[in-house]
Amino acid sequence: MKKRPFVAGNWKMNMTVPMTRAWFEEWLRLSPGPEDAEMVVCPPYTSLWEAARRSTGTGIWLGAQNLYWEEAGAFTGEVSGPMLADAGCRYVIIGHSERRQYFGETEATVQKRIAAAIRAGLRPIVCVGETLPQREAGQTLEVIQAQLEGGLSGFTGETIGGFIFAYEPVWAIGTGRTATPEQAQEVHQAVRGRLAQKIGKPAAGCVIILYGGSVKPSNAYDLFRKPDIDGFLVGGASLEAAPFAEIVKESIRAYYKEVN
Ligand code: PGA
User: What angle do CA 240, 246, 251 make, to 5 degrees?
Assistant: First the structure.
């Protein structure tokens, strides 16, 4: 059963406070309506407060791009789950490939961050994805399974049911090269299959699995038509409100095509 679209924007290390303000002003002019989709933006920490103020009543929820697993204390430069919840976040991205690649994120740290998110009442958006050499060597599903295992071990079915997963092939992030709907569906289906083994088929069917990697208004419709693609994690195309709103609208259009 197709779920209503979930579309999250990952602003990465972009967007000052004035840019955040302008984004929400533009969004208010374009808003596709909160009832048809779950919409989230994940600003950098410095813009969270402004985004929280501006997002009230817009239908957009807030997420962070990372968190540290301790709650408070002498951890210079880090931000904790309770701080993010306090700043208005409902979601947090964990294990993004850029964090794995540049900041030494491992399965062990991903697991600690997921646990910390849950303790703080935040829903984790757990990212998995293969590199181009891994895909070319035919290792995609193996790599994804290993990343999933890392993220899932130690959590019970009920908790896992609240996770959101994002499949983001590394070769498609910021490159303009999107996975085809078939390539994405294959991995999404495998992720859901693994979840079904772990938490049962009905619960796995309810888990939100996002696709990320060069999502734009022009490819969102075809991707969303695939049965196991429940929405998107959008980087570059979320930095302006107009293309982000278009992606939401295209997802809603595909959703109604599927359910009607
Ligand atoms: P992109 O980034 O849409 O710019 O490819 C997606 C992501 O990294 O979450």
Answer: 130
Per-residue pLDDT reduced to its tens digit, 172-191: 999 989 999 999 999 999 99
Q: How far is the CA of 126 from the centre of ligand 1 (A)?
A: 14
Known catalytic residue: 168?
yes
Burial class (CB in 10 A: 0-12, 13-18, 19+), 79: middle
Kindly report, residue by residue over 221-249, the tens digit of the pLDDT: 999 999 999 999 999 999 999 999 999 99
> CB–CB of 52/21 below 8 Å?
no
Q: Give the chain's end-to-end CA distance (angstroms, integer).
A: 12
Domains of the chain are: 6-259 (3.20.20.70)
Q: Exactly one of 38, 98, 105, 168 is catalytic; name it.
A: 168
Q: Check if 246 is active-site.
A: no
Please tell me if the CB atom of residue 168 comes closer than 6 angstroms to any atom of ligand 1. yes
Q: Are 11 and 42 in contact (CB under 8 A)?
A: yes
Cβ–ligand 1 distance for 47 under 6 Å, the answer: no
